[in-house]
Design goal:
single chain; 265 residues; Rossmann fold; eight-stranded mixed sheet; globular
Length: 265
């Protein structure tokens, strides 16, 4: 395996464990076949999740917007999985995908949807890639949840402060100025502001699905989602009754997981 920085290897391992220990078992619990499936992972990052699916017997394509990440992902494919994974650098909206005339059995969109500027167009584009039996797996942190602004990506004390991304405008201006002065990753603040301008909420997402000709097959909500267990050692906590109450879940659920099909499928 070619040289890759240790921090990237650690992140790959986190992705791999997330796929192997949580995503694949959940999909299997929901009746989705993995062994022998054709899987398309949009926004695959360093490729850990697609490697977990390939290890479970799937044939995988990973699509990553940032070419540096795609290159890192190619270097991190274990030898035993070579030939089972294709990794492509490109924009999902602009890149014509050669799927050899096949519809994927599973399309993964893991913590990507909230970052898309035109979410309605994305769903319509995804539907074009879906056959009648294709299942789309989408996860995201609801914007109004404690860290729905992804402030954990900052490097100052602000990374530990929940809910500041939903502050009203006068307070938001104060937080922005604090971040500008003291946070080494202040450029990421632009992404938080993009999320703030186009928030992804569970209720809104479900309405967009209906308008795009898609339907929810299964759903699960987490008060503490699996990624927080793997990255921070916190226990996984399911949404329970709080995940079923529309107004409340937008604020208390840290992870919303959906299995989606075409409405005419």
């Amino acid at each position: 395996m070619e040289y890759v920085p240790e921090r990237v290897r650690r992140y790959w391992l986190y992705q791999f464990r997330l796929g192997k220990e949580y995503i694949i078992p959940l999909l299997q619990q929901w009746g989705v076949r993995i062994n022998g499936a054709f899987v398309l992972d949009i926004g695959c990052g360093q490729g850990g999740v697609v490697c977990a699916f390939a290890e479970a017997g799937a044939r995988c394509i990973g699509l990553e917007l940032k070419s540096k990440r795609a290159l890192e992902a190619k270097k991190l494919i274990p030898c035993k999985l070579e030939g089972k994974i294709d990794l492509i650098a490109g924009d999902f909206f602009a890149l014509p995908l050669n799927l050899n005339g096949r519809f994927p059995d599973i399309i993964l969109l893991r913590d990507v949807f909230e970052h898309l500027s035109d979410k309605g167009s994305a769903l319509r584009q995804l539907k074009k890639l879906m056959g009648f039996d294709t299942r789309l797996f989408v996860t995201f942190p609801p914007f109004c949840s404690a860290f729905g602004g992804h402030q954990q990506m900052l490097r100052s004390f602000l990374k530990y402060i929940p809910y500041f991304h939903v502050f009203p405008e006068p307070l938001w201006d104060v937080v922005r100025e604090i971040a500008r002065q003291c946070d080494a990753n202040f450029p990421f603040f632009k992404e938080i502001e993009r999320l703030r301008a186009n928030p992804t909420l569970v209720g809104r997402f479900r309405r967009m699905l209906k308008g795009s000709g898609l339907r929810v097959v299964k759903e699960r909500y987490y008060l503490i989602r699996p990624s927080h267990h793997l990255r921070y050692g916190l226990p996984v906590v399911h949404g329970g009754i709080l995940g079923k109450i529309g107004g409340i879940r937008e604020f208390v659920v840290t992870g919303a997981f959906f299995l989606i099909a075409r409405r005419d499928g």
